[in-house]
Design brief:
Elements: E1 2-6, E2 9-15, H1 21-27, E3 33-36, H2 42-51, E4 56-59, H3 64-71, E5 80-81, H4 83-89, E6 92-95, H5 99-110, E7 118-121, H6 125-128, H7 130-133, E8 142-148, H8 152-160, E9 165-173, H9 179-189, E10 192-197, H10 200-212, H11 217-232, H12 237-259, H13 261-266, H14 270-299, H15 302-311, H16 316-328, H17 331-341, H18 344-348
Parallel strand pairs: 3-4, 3-6, 4-5, 6-7, 7-8, 9-10
Antiparallel strand pairs: 1-2, 2-10, 8-9
Helix pairs in contact: 1-9, 2-8, 10-14, 11-12, 12-17
């Protein structure tokens, strides 16, 4: 385990050079990894593990998602089973159903957590908020986590490109004395670029804050606000969208992803640099109180309860689809659909 300095703070980091794929295979050579759930993280993690040479099975209820697993090459009765049968067969149970579904499926999973097995999460939600979820594992199993910092789709795409998504890792309970090496082997197996240390509480607090903040919630709110201001002052939809979204995602994000925000600034006009440096302060001051309020809501468990209540409703998918449809059909994103079709790579196809 290496110490890497991040902005002046030393952290424990595990790289693929240090903990090789061959070592991971050796650690898990006698394990059967049962991936429970084939929704967001399940496909990417299970397929990457399978392609990396681990013994993997999938547990999924029959329906559209089950059919997707079959389409991806999983064979019913061979490496694709109903959830209970997969839990029985697995020595490591990767619990990758949604947070709300974890509550519903927990009694089935728990009865198959026999001594020496490992219960694996990719999110700290169920354990951290166990007073709300009821997920309290037996004391004689390892409880571990590898949390890729990206969607399951990104995890799979980058894996196929020979790259990886960075992941955090944590050991909540070490019953066998081998929980850490199991965790790291799984982290390498699912295709992590590197692994950094955390715990279940810090993972879920940062994750819920990030999703509601700059990763999804805040970015949509900020983009919409700027787009609306430009439109209100007479700018056309295409101009407003290009200045708000297209230039950000297609030109500037790749620059600061490559070498940092300062490098991106340095590769823009001096007028843009001056304006960005002058206005980042007001935006910081305006939004920081919102982020503080958000973090407090996460830490108190309020956000978790909202999620549990909303996603446990029988018709939650219908309501979710209606909200996403409204987002998709807003002028901003209908304009985006038109702009994307005009990108050179789309025209050339």
């Amino acid at each position: 385990m290496a110490k890497i300095n991040f902005g002046g703070v030393d952290e424990n980091v595990v790289t693929r050079e240090e903990f090789t794929l061959e070592k991971a295979r050796e650690v898990l050579k006698d394990e059967v990894i049962a991936v429970i759930g084939y929704g967001v993280q399940g496909p990417g993690q299970s397929l990457n593990l399978k392609d990396n040479g681990f013994k993997v099975i999938v547990g999924q209820r029959k329906g559209k998602t089950y059919d997707k697993a079959v389409a991806d090459g999983w064979v019913p009765g061979v490496d694709l089973f109903e959830i209970e049968e997969a839990c029985e067969k697995g020595t490591i149970i990767q619990y990758l159903v949604s947070d709300a579904a974890q509550i519903a499926v927990w009694p089935t999973v728990k009865k198959h957590l026999t001594p020496g097995k490992a219960l694996y999460f990719s999110h700290g939600f169920g354990i951290t908020y166990n007073d709300r979820t009821g997920i309290v594992p037996p004391k004689d199993v390892d409880v571990i986590m590898v949390a890729p910092k990206g969607s399951g789709t990104s995890l799979r795409r980058l894996f196929l490109q020979g790259r990886g998504v960075n992941s955090s890792y944590a050991v909540y309970q070490d019953a066998t004395g081998h929980a850490l090496e199991r965790t790291l082997a799984l982290g390498i197996g699912v295709g992590s670029g590197y692994l950094f240390e955390t715990d279940f509480k810090r993972e879920v607090y940062s994750d819920l804050t990030g999703e509601r903040g700059t990763l999804m919630g805040a970015i949509q709110g900020i983009l919409l606000a700027q787009y609306e201001v430009l439109r209100a002052h007479g700018h056309s939809p295409s101009e407003a969208f290009n200045e708000t979204v297209e230039e950000l995602t297609q030109s500037l994000m790749p620059l600061f992803a490559e070498k940092g925000m300062d490098w991106m600034y340095a590769n823009c006009s001096t007028t843009a640099q001056r304006g960005a440096l002058d206005w980042m302060g007001p935006f910081h001051d305006a939004t920081k109180p919102v982020f503080e309020k958000l973090y407090e809501s996460v830490a108190s468990g309020h956000e978790a309860q909202i999620s549990i209540d909303a996603n446990s409703k029988p018709d939650y998918r219908k309501g979710l689809e209606e909200e996403l449809k409204a987002l998709r059909e807003s002028e901003l994103w209908r304009t985006g659909a038109a702009v994307r079709k005009l990108r050179p790579e789309e025209i050339d196809r």
